[in-house]
Amino acid sequence: MIPLKDNIPTARFPILTVLLIVANIGVFLWQITQPSAPNSSDSPHIQGLSQQDENTLTYGAIPYRLTHPGKECGVAGSNIVCQGSPAYPSSEKLDSPPWWVTIVTSMFMHGGILHIAFNMLFLWIFGNNIEDSMGRGRFVLFYLLAGIIAAYAQALLDTNATLPAIGASGAIAGVLGGYLLLFPHARVLTLVFIIFFVTLIEVPAVIMLGIWFVLQFLPAIGQLATPDVSTTGGGVAYFAHIGGFVFGLAAIKLFANRYRATRPGYA
Q1: Is 189 in a helix, a strand, or coil?
Q2: In angstroms, rounded to a whole number, what is the distance separating the alpha carbons of residues 214 and 220?
Q3: Distance (Å, rounded) from C-alpha 31 to C-alpha 29?
Q4: Potential cystine with 63: which of 34, 42, 72, 155 (Cβ 3.0-4.6 Å)?
């Protein structure tokens, strides 16, 4: 199921939603223009890593750093090691910004074209109405807080994990949670694939977002057995999605001071 648009109009142009999309795309273009070959021995960067991978380690949200403020990490051979590990003193240190900065920088990085494409599609369809419901300043705060809660929801699954998480999914999950509560009866034009059959149907937001949540929750249960996953390692940070979504549900009416029950689709 791929959402294409909803039927809830906005009162004004969602400038911040557009700016967030532009910023995410800009950072992704910067990511993919970095060298993808391993750094050579005469490179000022960490040997054996490509510049793309080094940027992910530098600006991604490493769970160990988030849950051990002030502790730094480095690369020893093919492993990411952090202060407290016997291998840390001899590791090549990451030139990372403070741990709290990486929570924000990680929200604007993505692991591939499909990763960013689906994230930006969901942000555009559902973010414009959430921005409209609360005003621009509140929307930025809501979005960032959702991303922070999402990062910690994943980090607390394994506080010693060292693989960085990247992506706007957690913050966007907060937008989806808020949308579900404010606009449960909105209609979402959806592209549906059933084996070889493809069709367009309008799906109530409560059904579509309910299915989305279930598809995050079920694999998250499996993640409890193998918690050290991240976008860098090829995994999906499902607990980040759940954490952001639950935050959106819990906090939306504290932020959404502009919506009116008389408008179509509002709860």
Answers
A1: strand
A2: 10
A3: 5
A4: 155
CA 172 to chain CA centroid, Å, is: 6
Residue located via tokens 């959404």: 256
Q: Which two tokens stand for residue 132?
A: 């409209």
Tell me which of 51-60, 160-169, 218-227 is least confident.
218-227
Q: pTM for the complete prediction?
A: 0.89
Could you give the strand order of the β-sheet that contains 2-6, starting from the edge strand earlier in sequence? 2-6, 187-194, 197-204
pLDDT tens across 230-245, in order?
Answer: 433 447 889 999 999 9
Length of the chain: 267
pLDDT at 78: 81
pLDDT at residue 267, as a whole number:
43
149: three-class secondary structure by DSSP: helix
Cα separation, 231 vs 226, whole angstroms: 14
Spatial CA neighbour of 58 closest among 79, 34, 44, 74 = 74
Query: How crowded is the C-beta side of 159, counted as CA atoms within 13 Å?
Result: 5
* Number of alpha helices (DSSP H) and beta strands (DSSP E) in the chain: 9, 6
Q: Say if residue 21's pLDDT is above 80.
A: yes
